[in-house]
Amino acid sequence: MDWTGLLAWSIDQKKGEKFDTSIKPMDEETKKWLYEALQSYSVDEFQMIKDLLDKIAKPELEDEEQQRLEWFEQLMELLDALDRANDFCKLGGLRLMFNYFQTTKFDSIKLSTLKIIQNCNQNNAFVQEYCGENNYLQLLLQIEKINNLKVKEQLISALSSIIRGECLKNKRRFIDMNGLQILLNHLDSNRCIEKIANLFRDLLYYDDQLHKTYHDLSKFSNTAGQSIKQQDKKNYNLTTDINDELLKSNELPENQKYQGIVKKILIDLKFLNYSNKFIFDTSIKTSDLRIQFLSCSIILLKVQDDQEFKKIIKTHLDNLIKEQDKDDGEINLCKQIL
């Protein structure tokens, strides 16, 4: 786009001793030029994404790591700025990212593909459903092949972004793949543990709803608002068009086995015993990790009590209180457990 020309045109409109505050109709020639300039800017951005995908799709050469990293960085910047994750899916961009992750020999590029996958899925129901339908949760199985710790941590983040939130179908797919068991075999760093505990916390939050087709049926409802005379308040009367057929389809018999399944699996896997890997570190730098784990523990202890674990938490709490820098939220969680 000719930004210099646009700036010159804007300045030219303000020339004169007095600023003219009147609104004048734009002549057709100027209107056409401005419309085409803005349109070309939008098209150029979209075309840039397509061009970058075309470059990335070509076979990777031995000496191309730096060049390809630059392409991925440009792609991430465009996607972040334009919020075009849905369009990126339709262009085949996510499919290319998943395939490229499995074929590239460069760990730096593996990291880039995973970051793009994560960013596109974050809080985006359309992309999450797209990834689930296209079997991209198979990304989980790649974790066994990864030796680079940073790549493993980023893979867990990307995987989590596909699963977390209200896409219950993806949660069920993950469970069917023995995802909980697989991830518990990869607590290779504090960051891995924190990311995995954060995902488990989300799964536990939705655990009692996992048998449902939709977590929230309000999207099928009508809301009628009625103003009360001479008052600022409104009386909201809710009317729904949720029929018996929809309610029935929301709790299919074949999905009943998933209700409460996360708690059962984690208890069977003795999830609370994994606290020995980190709970004795009371430093503030690992408090987020412990908070995620303790939040999961509170939910599990409501199902099955564990006095040995509570003894560990009591010792941890006593040590935590002695620390100069401590997280009050973590202290509160420990007290809830006890």
Automatic annotation (TrEMBL):
Species the sequence originates in:
Paramecium sonneborni
> Which terms are listed as keywords in the entry?
Repeat
**Single GO molecular-function term?**
adenyl-nucleotide exchange factor activity
Domain Nucleotide exchange factor Fes1: residue ranges: 5-87
Fetch the Pfam families from UniProt.
Fes1
One GO cellular component term: endoplasmic reticulum
Top-rank lineage group of the source organism: Eukaryota
**Protein name (record):** Nucleotide exchange factor Fes1 domain-containing protein
